[in-house]
Amino acid sequence: MSLARRTFLLRLGHTGLAALTLASGLLPRFARAEEARPAFMATAVADALKALGVGNPAKSDAISFKAPDIAENGAAVPVEVESTLPKTRSILLLVEKNPHVMSASFQFREGTDPYVATRVKVAESSVIHAVVTTDDGAFYTTRLVKVTLGGCGG
Amino acid sequence: MNTRFAARLLYTMLASGTLLLAGAVRADTSTQDAIAEYREMFGDDNPAELWQARGEALWHEARGPQKANLEACDLGLGPGVIAGAYAQLPRWFADTGQVQDLETRLVTCVTSLQGIPRDDFLKVKFGDGEKKSELEALTAYVVAASRGKPLTLPLKHPAEQAAFDLGKAVFRYRAGPHDFACATCHGEPGKRIRLQELPQLNTALGAREAYTHWPAYRISQGELRSMEWRLQDCFRQQRLPQLKFGSEVAIGLTMYLAKTAEGGVLAAPGIKR
Amino acid sequence: MSDPMRIRAVANGDKVEVKILMSHVMETGQRKDADGAVVPAHYIVKVVGTCNGREVLSADWGPSVSKNPYLSFRFKGGAKGDKVKITWTDTAGEQRSDEVSVG
After folding, report:
1. What is residue C44's predicted lDDT score, i.e. its pLDDT?
2. Number of domains chain C contains
3. Which residues of B are known to be catalytic?
4. Which residues of A touch C59 (CB under 8 A)?
């Protein structure tokens, strides 16, 4: 196991611990509502990845990343990521222009497809990063999603 | 027209923007395609299901002073019949002597069967995050039971015809500081607000497109919205006085839209931006 | 009290496909209400999926996952009748689990 991977697991461990602390209700109410996980407080993609111990991901074609070119509403932008990279451990979603870039991370256990579909908020037209961590390092691909202002709709 | 003049006219047209216009039309098509792609990606996974589930639980739960559920509620097809009921609403009800839409009929059932006061039940007409609307949940549940059913509004009762006539008149009635009517935006083809194409609601095609997908989960709000909400918000956007919940005008407009959309197959609750 | 999730888990070949809708406000803490007061942050931070007690997926979320979240994933080694359980935990410390049988 590489050092980077160990660091990554360690950081994820912290994240898990933070969530556990939040869940257990040990903290006073005002503190509970505050985000305590460094990656989720980052305002730049590089900082978020650093906080997770993910160093310099390489651009990869082995990640399929589906997102619409134009989102009629930024409140929900459907995204679908699938990795064909061997030994994929996790998929991270980061929205460059959001106040806090880190949106979600998904960790796959043995036997779970390196695939996830969800919907994220995109505050304004932005590049979205799909980062895949594997036993052999981290990789990424991006999609630009334009968010329209929208009218009264209906 | 001599050829030289025609050539000059053509040149002027090209220079002054006919080409630009063609470009704009192309760009517009790709934008609409992209928006269609966005909508497709939601598939069948509509958060409206969460309201349907909550509505179903509410329907079967004994509640209120009379500790009764809503299983005896008559939505027009007989007590307890939900399947297809929404496809035949609004309609005239003998017990209330009124033309009622789904929402007002649900109010009747909740007040008469469960004994819950109207104002209590309508405290949250339209949900907002943690403040959840029981009415919207019940609405979603009943509406979903008419998926795939064609809208059928025979207008047999004179009061139903009168509601339709009133709705039709209101649709065209210009008022407010902007001198707007529903028809201002929804009475001609090809209208839009920014990137939103607006359905022409006085035609069967346009009315079906819109009506068969409402109530709908509104992505921008993360809420399921009823037809009563949809109409109230249209009034707000026209800067008209607030449309009263369950009023003759609200039910009349609903009747007008439903009748115009008659034959359209219900796909509600839908999902809207 | 939170509302139940809608979970669909369908066996397809050697895989189980899971689709989930969760009822949650996912408040970012950056929005103001009609009176101008900041609506406090309230969102899901952790999601865990298990099949017959075996963990298949875990996720860490921030406030930019959409309101009433949708999540879909697939795993091997499940069969019809197996129990898929999803658990979320939010910033208020609330935890909710719902379970379905693979169909």
Report:
1. 97
2. 1
3. 234
4. 104-107, 116
CB pairs < 8 Å spanning A and C: 125
Fold (CATH) for A3-147: Immunoglobulin-like (2.60.40)
What token pair was written down for A113? 């497809």
Q: Would you call B273 an interface residue with chain A, using a CB distance cutoff of 8 Å? A: yes
Q: What is the pLDDT of residues A137-146, one digit of tens each?
A: 999 999 999 9
Q: Quickly tell me which residue has 């693979």 as its tokens.
A: C102
pLDDT score, position B39? 86
Q: What is the CATH number of the domain that holds C38?
A: 2.60.40.10
Inter-chain touch A109–C65, beta carbons under 8 Å: no
Touching subunits of B (3+ CB pairs, under 8 Å) are: A, C
* ipTM rounded to 2 decimals: 0.95
State how far the Cα of A144 lies from the Cα of A92, in Å rounded to an integer. 16
Contact in structure between B132 and B105 (CB atoms under 8 Å):
no
Domain boundaries in chain B? 48-272
Instruction: Tell me whether residue C1 is in a domain.
Output: no
Mutant choice from C2, C3, C86, C100 vs B, greatest count of B C-beta within 10 A: C3
E strand intervals along chain A: 58-59, 63-66, 70-71, 77-83, 88-95, 102-108, 115-120, 126-134, 137-147
* CATH numeric code, B48-272: 1.10.760.10
State the average pLDDT over residues B159-166.
98
User: Taking 80 as the threshold, does the pLDDT of residue B154 lie above it?
Assistant: yes
